[in-house]
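User: Please fill in residues for this 81-position structure.
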C-alpha cells in the first residue's frame, strides 16, 4: 500500500515514543533491543523497499490470509521482483 503521502507523519508518530527506546539515565540498558536510530533506519529501509516493489517512494506491505481467485496471473495489477 502506498504510504508516500503519510510517511513523514507516520515516522514522527513512531519516533514520538522514543522514551520506549532510550533507557532512563539511572539505568544502563534499555529494555528494548532496538536503539531508536536503528529503528528509524529500518523503518525507512523497509518502506523504501516495499515502495520500489510497487513503483512509489514509500509503501507498507500487508499479508492477506484469505484465498483469492485469479483468472490470469499475468494481468494482476502488481509487479514481480
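Assistant: Residues filled in for all 81 positions:
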Amino acid at each position: 500500500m502506498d504510504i508516500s503521502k503519510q510517511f513523514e507523519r507516520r515516522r514522527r508518530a513512531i519516533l514520538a515514543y522514543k522514551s520506549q527506546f532510550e533507557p532512563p539515565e539511572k539505568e544502563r540498558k534499555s529494555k528494548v533491543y532496538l536503539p531508536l536510530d536503528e529503528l528509524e533506519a529500518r523503518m525507512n529501509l523497509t518502506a523504501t523497499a516495499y515502495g520500489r516493489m510497487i513503483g512509489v517512494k514509500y509503501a507498507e506491505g500487508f499479508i492477506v490470509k484469505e484465498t483469492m481467485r485469479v483468472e490470469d496471473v499475468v494481468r494482476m495489477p502488481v509487479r514481480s521482483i
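For context: The chain has one domain: 7-75.
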